[in-house]
Design goal:
The protein is of the alpha/beta class. Helices cover 58% and strands 9% of the residues. Helix 6 packs antiparallel against helix 7, helix 7 runs antiparallel to helix 8 and helix 13 runs antiparallel to helix 14.
């Protein structure tokens, strides 16, 4: 009240007395105008007060710094960001002159300057100022309580710059600080949940992101005033998750609710309005309404130009959206698309933020150029886009699965580039670009294996190690409870309900464990450098004089096989086609393979883990015809000619082809229809051309055999005979045999690190969940209950092996969820990451007797002897010969074909 009276009195008296108010009086006038809602008058008074103070002294002055700070904030309230940035720059500069300045004042000024720098597109300044403010706050003990806000703001800025790996730790810290303080205002806590949710959404962790957004929205609703303006950012955040998972109607409903709220209040946040308009355009475009999308993008661009000026980089994503909408409406070759995408690129060029949008703009311009026959410039643009995406992939943070999904999200760019390079007769370039993203996560796993995260801060390492241990205990305990419920005398409905609940608990524990492991890597500078060092490699290895190559690239519109003869550096590109010449995109390949896979996977007789006998619904003749049709498509004559006569063949599958056993296909042979096993050289499967064999010190030369553990699953009658055959093949080696009750998890773990050859004849369980973490080899439970009797995939990753070969004679050990460019996350992958040079694993449930027969045939001859399969010391050749031998007794491919050699081709024996 007094402030209002003073303002009125001064407004009357000043013109009469012709006396300019002092800075202190102007401060009061500014505050009074702000109380009255007159933002323009408040700004004018604050700016004049700052000018007067600055003119009154040349000495460093905290009062001058505070005056410019207040002037900057008054410009900000009017969304006048350039003058706000200039005033706050003067405030911080003045504080830096003041000796013994209060760290709280400096941190506050730097934080506000950083926000103005971000809004005006000066991302480098914003990052520098936020990092400095954060350092000051930590060093001073944060008396002003700025630390959560600074960590949140810097994390959000790094997200803007597509540096999610650096953003996530800061945002987790901000949330932890907010959540631990009972005095935290609800909206501050909501913002912390929202910011972390945004990063998780970008990492394809949609369930985690939705949880954070729902919590943020709930807090915002509780704290919102009557006009509900505080709810709008959180409605928009949740809409972003719905958009990413395809719930476009739900997303658009939340966007419209947000726009309705903003339209009903005075002085809405125009930056937020622009953000919602752009997101609405994205959803409308995804829904197919390109015309409405283009209108929303145009509204966003107009608003951002008014706010930030014509050169601000934030116009770029909206301009790109408008260009994509034009492409959807008029075709990618339309001249209006060219104009729009060039405008977008001009906005994005050189900006440290919006790198993914820049890659998208380059890709769109490339497609426009290609549509006009400008092949060279189109390839150059698309190569630049894909290289940029490769760099961005390394900074995704979160889980390895997030990086794989980022590759999948941008598969169209890689597919187009591969196709255009083939059309330009640059086959080596096409192979290199196809390989750019292939096996990247596997290479990261290999490079990171067994390295302790010593560079993780001690408090973080302690917390996450405890979380990891607790989750591991929960996995063990839940496995035991699952066994108990399965064996209990319960009504069937009750048993199903309990098993389902425990299965959910098991999955949650595995995800919690994985989260702890990935966070340890997230906080490790060493691991982040490793990811960046591995990015960008498009080199191809020199040809092996004895090994031919078939490298597959499966695209959304068409697919290729790249063949290279043994000892030849060049590749041949062959399009995969049907018999009538049509292209074979992934959708067609999947549709043709799935019924064949169903037939091959169906048990015949007693199987490892599956009892009973079934027959083929479609009949063996239909299966044989389908295998021949697939063989003709996947192994065209040109490719077969290139690999013919090689000592060995390396096949690098892609996408759905990771589950195809190529030796079981039918092809044209010298004497008519033949199994590919008889036509191809011995086959090994590899995740990538660039993945080297694991380098490990030699073990003690021992042989580990694990057979028929004492579990609650059916006995394996042939497993013990199989184990005896393996043991007999190593008369001069130290053989460790763990069978029945002796095959406990601890005993196996103790014996694994020293073994040179490892053989499992057991049950196994595949897992189709995220990254297959619960896939496991079934062992004997420990009587003490200390271990659960399952050697999980996530536990295999932690081991350090020295074996040349691990033979996994159990069901589905090469089956699991397939991630883009990575192949199956199966038990076999765990052994390779742990250090095995090669793995023999199964593509489907094993026929118990036939599996034992293949193993016995593999070890029947001394390694030095030559046989039908070529060099008998080569396990790839030995496996091919064993399958041929067993096929005479077990002609069904379900029985003889499931074993595949995966990994490096090194010798498995000086036995």
């Amino acid at each position: 009240m007094r402030r209002g009276v003073l303002a009125i009195a001064l407004a009357i008296a000043s013109p009469v007395l012709a006396v300019e108010p002092t800075p202190d009086v102007l401060d009061s006038l500014s505050a009074a105008a702000l109380d009255a809602g007159d933002l323009t008058a408040a700004r004018d008074h604050a700016v004049r007060a700052a000018e007067l103070r600055a003119a009154a002294t040349t000495e460093p002055s905290g009062d001058v710094a505070i005056g410019w700070h207040e002037a900057g904030l008054s410009h900000y309230r009017l969304e006048d960001y350039e003058p706000a940035y200039a005033a706050l720059t003067r405030a911080v500069t003045e504080w830096e002159r003041v000796p013994d300045a209060d760290p709280t004042d400096v941190v506050w000024a730097e934080s506000d300057l950083a926000e103005m720098a971000r809004l005006t597109g000066r991302f480098d300044v914003a990052e520098s100022r936020l990092a400095d403010a954060l350092s000051r706050a930590r060093a001073s003990g944060d008396p002003g309580g700025f630390l959560p806000a600074l960590a949140n703001n810097l994390g959000t800025l790094l997200w803007d710059e597509d540096r999610l790996d650096e953003a996530e730790p800061l945002l987790r810290e901000a949330l932890a600080l907010r959540a631990s303080d009972p005095e935290t205002p609800p909206l501050s806590l909501a913002r912390a949940h929202q910011s972390l949710g945004v990063v998780m959404r970008s990492q394809h962790r949609y369930d985690d992101a939705e949880r954070e957004f729902v919590r943020a929205l709930s807090l915002a609703r509780e704290a919102a005033g009557p006009d509900r303006r505080d709810v709008v950012p959180y409605l928009n955040g949740l809409a972003g998750v719905y958009s990413r998972v395809g719930r476009l109607d739900d997303a658009l409903a939340l966007r419209e609710e947000s726009l309705g709220i903003l339209g009903s209040i005075e002085n809405p946040s125009r930056p937020l309005l622009a953000e919602i308009l752009e997101a609405t355009g994205d959803d409308l475009l995804a829904k197919g309404d390109a015309e409405s999308a283009e209108r929303r993008y145009a509204e966003c661009v107009t608003l951002r130009r008014e706010l930030f000026g014509a050169s601000h980089p934030s116009l770029g994503p909206a301009l790109l959206g408008a260009a994509e909408a034009k492409a959807a409406r008029f075709g990618v070759g339309d001249r209006r698309v060219r104009k729009a995408v060039v405008e977008a690129l001009n906005q994005l060029e050189g900006a440290p933020a919006f790198s993914e949008a820049r890659a998208g703009a380059l890709a769109l311009r490339a497609r426009h150029l290609h549509a006009h026959g400008k092949q060279g410039p189109a390839i150059e643009d698309l190569r630049t886009a894909v290289a940029l995406l490769d760099t961005l992939r390394a900074a995704r943070g979160g889980l390895g699965e997030s990086r794989a999904w980022f590759t999948e999200e941008h598969r169209a760019e890689i597919d187009d580039l591969v196709t255009w390079l083939v059309e330009a007769d640059d086959v080596a370039g096409a192979v290199a670009e196809s390989e750019r993203m292939r096996g990247r996560l596997f290479a990261e796993q290999l490079a990171d294996a067994h390295l302790e995260p010593a560079d993780v801060p001690a408090d973080v390492r302690e917390r996450l190690t405890a979380q990891e241990k607790a989750a591991h205990i929960r996995v063990n305990e839940t496995r035991r409870r699952l066994r108990a419920v399965a064996d209990a005398d319960l009504p069937e409905a009750d048993r199903r309900d309990r098993l389902a609940a425990l299965d959910s608990t098991l999955t949650a524990a595995a995800l919690e464990l994985r989260d702890a492991q990935e966070q340890l890597r997230l906080y490790s500078p060493r691991f982040q450098r490793l990811l960046r060092d591995l990015a960008g490699d498009v080199s191809l290895p020199a040809a092996d004089p004895g090994e031919a190559l078939l490298v597959y690239h499966v695209g959304e519109r068409e697919s290729f096989v790249f063949s290279r003869a043994a000892g030849r550096d060049g590749f041949r590109a062959t399009r995969l086609r049907t018999t009538d010449g049509a292209s074979l995109p992934e959708s067609t390949l999947r549709a043709r393979w799935e019924p064949v896979a169903e037939d091959l996977h169906r048990p015949r007789g007693a199987s490892r883990g599956v009892a009973g006998t079934t027959t083929l619904d479609r009949g063996s003749d239909i299966l044989a015809a389908d295998l021949r049709s697939l063989g003709d498509a996947l192994l065209p004559a040109e490719a077969l000619a290139d690999v013919s006569g090689a000592h060995r063949l390396a096949i690098l599958p892609d996408r759905v082809l990771h589950s195809v056993p190529f030796e079981a296909l039918r092809v044209a042979g010298p004497e008519g229809d033949a199994w590919a096993l008889d036509v191809l050289p011995p086959v090994r499967y590899a995740p990538s051309l660039r993945t080297p064999p694991t380098a490990r010190d030699a073990g003690d030369g021992s042989v580990l055999i694990v057979a028929d553990p004492a579990s609650d699953l059916p006995a394996l009658p042939a497993a013990r005979a199989e184990a005896a055959a393996v043991a007999a093949a190593f008369p001069n080696a130290r053989v460790v045999r763990l069978e029945g009750p002796a095959a406990t998890e601890n005993a196996v773990r103790d014996a694994l690190p020293a073994a040179r050859f490892v053989h499992f004849a057991t049950h196994a369980i595949a897992d189709r969940g995220p990254e297959g973490l619960l896939a496991s080899i079934v062992l004997t439970p420990a009587p003490s209950g200390a271990t659960d009797g399952f050697l999980h995939l996530f536990e295999l990753y932690e081991l350090s092996l020295r074996c040349d070969l691990a033979w996994l004679s159990a069901c589905d050990t090469n089956s699991g969820p397939v991630l883009a460019g990575e192949g199956a996350f199966a038990i076999s992958r765990g052994f390779l990451v742990a250090g095995a040079r090669g793995v023999v694993a199964s593509a489907w449930p094993l026929h118990d007797e036939a599996a034992a027969a293949v193993v016995e045939a593999f070890f029947a001859d001394a390694p030095g002897q030559a046989g039908a399969g070529g060099d008998r010391s080569d396990p790839v050749a030995r496996l091919a010969a064993a399958k041929k031998k067993v096929r005479a007794r077990y002609p069904d491919p379900h029985q003889w074909a499931p074993f595949l050699f995966v990994g490096a081709a090194g010798s498995a024996a000086s036995w």
